[in-house]
Structures are given as structure tokens and as C-alpha cells.
Amino acid sequence: MDSSTPTAGSSYRPIPYRPRRMPVEESLRTAAWLSERMAQRRTVRAFSADPVDERLVVDAIAVAATAPSGAHQQPWTFVLVTDPDVRARIREAAEAEERRAYEGRLGAEWLAALAPLGTDEHKPHLTEAPFLIVVFAQRYYLDEGTGNKHKHYYVDESVGIAVGMLLTALHLAGLAALTHTPSPMRFLSEILNRPRNEKAFAVIPVGYPADDATVPDLTRKPLDRVLLRV
Predict the structure, then answer these.
(1) Is position 177 within any domain?
(2) Under the phi-then-psi rule, with left for phi > 0, alpha for psi from -120 to 50, and beta for the rest, what region is 196?
(3) Nearest Cα to 200, choosing from 132, 142, 146, 150?
């Protein structure tokens, strides 16, 4: 998502960037700590009813909003949903779409891939988690004055990076989350009254894991399977 060097006379206005350079030993400790903490992250589908301080979630969204984006257009909207009635409507609509998916839309191969995860059309986490974060991708920008469209670039890549940073921030704050992507997701735009330039990207329930929460017995690929040196 980098761009070429701006030409003379453009609107490019550089400012100094002088971050503190961490000593090597401090960097190594930080990197090792992050690796250990993130290795503990799991997708959770059973949430506690215990309240969560909203500031934790808002700060995590603030972290996500620092993500890099194509042409720095920041093509995302984060809708924080706390109203129980709204969450109930989202769950009802999501489960209707999921029911159709599991009854045939997904196909045998996809259902086989999902089998080890133990998922089905029931989505209680959408109403049990204290918060839902619905992430919308802005396919284009609407000028507030004229209503004219302006293209956004690398939208999916930008929003995907932001969601990854959001999940990381939530986990490091001690919260559990999952990414839920019912298909299609048009009902989210309708329920949350989003403008036509926005398309739902993911629904992320957030909270503390239930005391009896379980997760699938899965292992991640070892680093030598995903890291290449050339």
C-alpha cells in the first residue's frame, strides 16, 4: 500500500519522525513477550455475562484505527453495539443466514473444513457477549457537501489489517473475541443504518470467556512451516 515519491508541488508535507530506538535487549524481551502472549490467543464462542469496562474496548478500537491504509484513506467504520435489542436483531438475522448456509449454501468441502471447529448455525455469542464491534469497510468516500463519490484504494487489505490489530489489542487487554462473518451481511447495514458506501466486513463479539468456555483442540502450524528465508 506504499505509493511513489510525490512530485514537486504536490500536497505532500513531510514532518520529522524520530521514534525512540529501543536497546536490542529490550526489543528482544518485548518481542518474546508478545509472541508468548499472542500464542495464547484463541477464538472464543462462550462469553461471561460479567461487565467489561467500555474503555478497554474503545482503546482497542483506537489501536485498530492506527492501522496503515491505502493512500492513508482509513476506509473503516467501527460500530460499537451495546443495546440488547439491537444485538438480538443482529443475532436473529445472522442465524437465519447461517441456517441457510449450513443447510446447503456452504457445500460439503467447506462443511468438512469447519467440522473440527464445532460450529453450527447457532450464534449465542452475539447476544451473550457484552459488546459487539461491527466493522464496516468504506468502499468509497462520499463528499459531505456534494455527495460525489471518491475511490478508496486497497480497502479489503486496509480493513483486514485494522481488524488484526483490533484482535491483538483486545487480547493483550485480557479480553476474548471472535470474528464472525455471516454471508451475506447486508442485514447489518440495514439494522445499523449505515450509508450505502459502507459494506459490513466482520462482527466481533467481545467480553470475558465464560467460566466453562471450551475451545477446539487445535494446533498452529510450526514457524518453520510458515517462515521462509531467502
Answers:
(1) yes
(2) alpha
(3) 132
- Alpha-carbon distance 118 to 123, whole Å? 12
Helix (H, G, I), strand (E, B), or coil: what is residue 19? Answer: coil
SS3 at position 92: helix
How many domains does the chain fold into?
Answer: 1
Of the candidates 147, 101, 131, 138, which has an alpha carbon nearest to the alpha carbon of residue 205?
A: 131
- Looking at the domain assignment, is residue 161 inside a domain? yes
**Which phi and psi angles does 199 have, rounded to 5°?**
-125, 130
Is 189 inside a domain boundary? yes
CA distance 151 to 73: 10
pLDDT tens digits for range 11-24: 889 999 999 999 99
User: How much of the chain exceeds pLDDT 70, in percent?
Assistant: 96
Total Cβ atoms within 10 A of residue 151: 11
Distances in Å between the alpha carbon of 57 and those of 162, 189, 208?
Answer: 14, 21, 12
Pairing of strands 149-151, 176-177: unpaired
Q: What is the domain-level CATH number for residue 118?
A: 3.40.109.10
Q: Which domain holds residue 95?
A: 42-208
Instruction: Provide the pLDDT for residue 166.
Output: 98
Give pLDDT tens digits for 138-180. Answer: 999 988 888 789 999 999 999 999 999 999 999 999 999 999 9
How many CB atoms sit inside 10 A of residue 116's CB? 10
In a domain, 86, yes or no: yes
pTM of the model: 0.91
Strand partners, 144: none
